[in-house]
Design a protein that fits this description.
Blueprint (H helix, E strand, L loop, with lengths): L2 H26 L4 E4 L1 H9 L6 E4 L2 H11 L4 H7 E3 L2 H7 L8 E5 L4 H9 L7 E4 L5 H14 L3 E4 L8 H6 L8 E4 L10 E10 L10 E4 L8 H6 L2 E4 L11 H13 L12
Parallel strand pairs: 2-3, 5-6, 5-9, 6-7, 8-9, 8-10
Antiparallel strand pairs: 1-4, 2-4
Helix pairs in contact: 7-10
The chain binds S-adenosylmethionine (SAM).
Length: 271
């Protein structure tokens, strides 16, 4: 085929692929997790997420970004990514990410996530957020947990740790750790270290690999129920007139402290 007819046919095939992708998006949009932007999609693919549809306003630019920054996911991206016009993608997402990329991923099954959390041979801690309020904080904590190779992040209370704003804050790293909401009574087994400014100085302790590391809510700290379940109260060094650190910052310091003495913590030199 050549000339005008060939061009039309190519446009038709392209339009068909675009329509199919938009149809798949609409089918999955209700229950799937929105991956907002190139980096969230990159992390999700890297950590084995099921991604039924991925869209870009400039496919070539997104693939060039992958070749440059994430060659390991480039083939998976090339196989999935469908180019759609800017206005089509804007109609599907709450706010178009600057990279012009969006995708949908299936949530890992509950049984799979709970299985990872309840493993008795865990070699890295589980982070527990006791009734967190701020969605951005929860996302930042999931990103920290993924970076440190934590076994999972559990939230208690009403916040949904799979809320789109949490997923955005977590940069697609929900798929690199196990994320679930549980009641205090359902927490995995293991020694529970609860972080509180009134506790013992963390610098005098080694946090075990199977620890649960629990943090209180931004507004009111640890709940009485969580304190009851705690085996140890631990504090982060802080001068007297300062009342507390930000929640995600506290998680970062605590995981860093754990990493300084655990053979299972990731290495910084990646050598
Ligand atoms: C913003 S703080 C909560 C402040 C809250 N107004 C309170 O009464 O505790 C959120 C959580 O971060 C942790 N945190 C903050 N600063 C800490 C510190 N110096 N030592 C230990 N944990 C700390 C605690 O788990 C705390 O519940």
């Amino acid at each position: 085929m050549s000339g005008a007819n060939g061009t039309q046919a190519a446009r038709g095939a392209h339009g068909g692929r675009e329509q199919d992708a938009v149809r798949v998006w609409r089918q999955h949009a209700q229950e799937a997790v929105l991956l907002d932007g190139f980096h969230a999609l990159k992390h999700a693919l890297r950590f084995g997420a099921d991604v039924p549809v991925a869209l870009a306003v400039d496919r070539a630019a997104a693939l060039a970004l992958a070749a440059d920054l994430a060659p390991d996911v480039a083939p998976g991206l090339a196989a999935r990514l469908v180019e759609v016009p800017d206005d089509v993608l804007r109609a599907l997402v709450p706010r178009l990410h600057p990279t012009g990329v969006a995708a949908l991923a299936g949530r890992p099954a509950v049984a799979e996530r709970l299985g990872a959390l309840h493993r008795t041979d865990r070699t890295t801690p589980v982070v527990v957020l006791d009734q967190p309020r701020n969605l951005g904080n929860a996302g930042a904590v999931i990103r920290l947990a993924a970076g440190y190779g934590a076994a999972g992040v559990v939230t208690t209370g009403s916040l949904d740790p799979w809320h789109p704003t949490v997923v955005r804050g977590g940069a697609g790293l929900h798929f690199a750790t196990a994320v679930a909401r549980l009641d205090v009574g359902e927490l995995p087994a293991g020694p529970l270290y609860a972080l509180d400014p009134e506790g013992a100085d963390i610098r005098g302790l080694e946090l075990p690999d199977d620890a649960l590391l629990a943090f209180g809510s931004e507004r009111s700290g640890l709940t009485p129920e969580l304190r009851e379940r705690a085996d140890h109260l631990v504090s982060l060094p802080m001068r007297p007139q300062v009342s507390s650190y930000n929640l995600a910052t506290s998680v970062g310091m605590t995981l860093f402290h754990w990493s300084t003495h655990s053979p299972h913590a990731p290495r910084a030199d990646r050598g």
